[in-house]
Amino acid sequence: MPNLFTRRHFFARSALIGCSAAASPLLTPVSFAAAPWDTRLVVIILRGAMDGIDVVRPYGAPEYATLRPGEAGGGPDLDGFFGLHPELSDLMPLWNAGELGFYHAVSTPYRDKRSHFDGQDILEAGTPGLDGARDGWLNRLLTKLPGVEARTAYAIGRGDMKLLAGSAPVADWSPDADLVLSPQALRLAERVMEDDPAFHAAFSEALMLSGDSALAPLPDEETMGMGAPVDSNKAHAVIAEYAAEQLRGDARIAAFSINGWDTHNRQSRAIVPALRRLSETLLLLRSGLGNSIWSNTAVIAMTEFGRTVAINGTGGTDHGTGGAMVLAGGAVQGGKVHGDWPGLAESDLYQRRDLMPTRDVRAPAAWIMHGLTGIDRAALEQVVFPGLDMGDDPRVTR
Description:
Layout: H1 7-18, H2 20-23, E1 30-34, E2 40-47, H3 52-55, E3 56-57, H4 64-67, E4 83-84, H5 92-96, E5 100-107, H6 116-125, H7 137-143, E6 171-173, H8 183-195, H9 197-210, H10 219-222, H11 235-247, E7 251-259, H12 267-270, H13 272-294, E8 297-303, E9 323-328, E10 337-338, E11 359-360, H14 362-373, H15 377-384
Parallel strand pairs: 2-7, 2-8, 5-10, 5-11
Antiparallel strand pairs: 1-6, 1-7, 3-4, 5-9, 8-9
């Protein structure tokens, strides 16, 4: 009988547990809310800090080739200045149809500490800082809209989507998942990983060495007699298909996560599984909803912060500030990279290391909700996103 408890097996298991916030799509929920209006809103949290300038590449910036050697070329051109990561090439028909767009150089008000957990908490609370709201911005939106009621249970994993926490009724659903640790133990493991750079690096390296197999059940997990788990590599497809099914019916709002964006090492390889999950998710939503519903749907994909502009010594990027938002659906103004591009010269960067944010990520989200539901600006700035100045309309919806 082979010895399964090898160093590689240990680190692969550790990566499965400790890096779960950045790798496993089974640890965060998808929730739905039903309402009488006819548009649909899908919010996807990209956990782990997606590198916006790798996903939407500013080829036209003269500094880009030096800051990101090896990234130039290979992906489809978007507008003569920006290009798309090659792994998202399958989304070009959406771009060409005006059903895919991006908003560049955005971030939450969170600055400098660059903790995934604090960053995600602020992103989901929709507040200027960590203090204040105990509910989430998407739930607060529901409190301002008519006819909202929960349908059935829809939560992927055993955790909570904080952006849906609050007084408005929502429902959660979970696919069949065989998780070894409790949410509390997972959260503790994630905290330990984040606070120990060496441990974090070991996890990341093990995940890279193992590839997607690090996310699949290990042999002893397959024989625990606790029921067949959902394949981690296919969970995003289960989520997208189920979301589309519910949104074809009474559900109007869906929220879930796609993880795996924490690319400290060998980013050119590490980011690929997450990009594939994102691409497949959007395409499955598109096909599952059908033309008539998709034409009235807006998908917002947001991340807690961006990543450093320059590549680090291990071929990855570290936690940064400005990032990108992904927009999709027939209700969004696609075929365009929105936002005010700040430039990549050292003097243009935030703290001379990060992409400078030129707009609060909450503002485009607020304008999309305004366009979809007609909710007034005062409610968005004072209740949904307290302390937000939405600024001028960026025209991100049709």
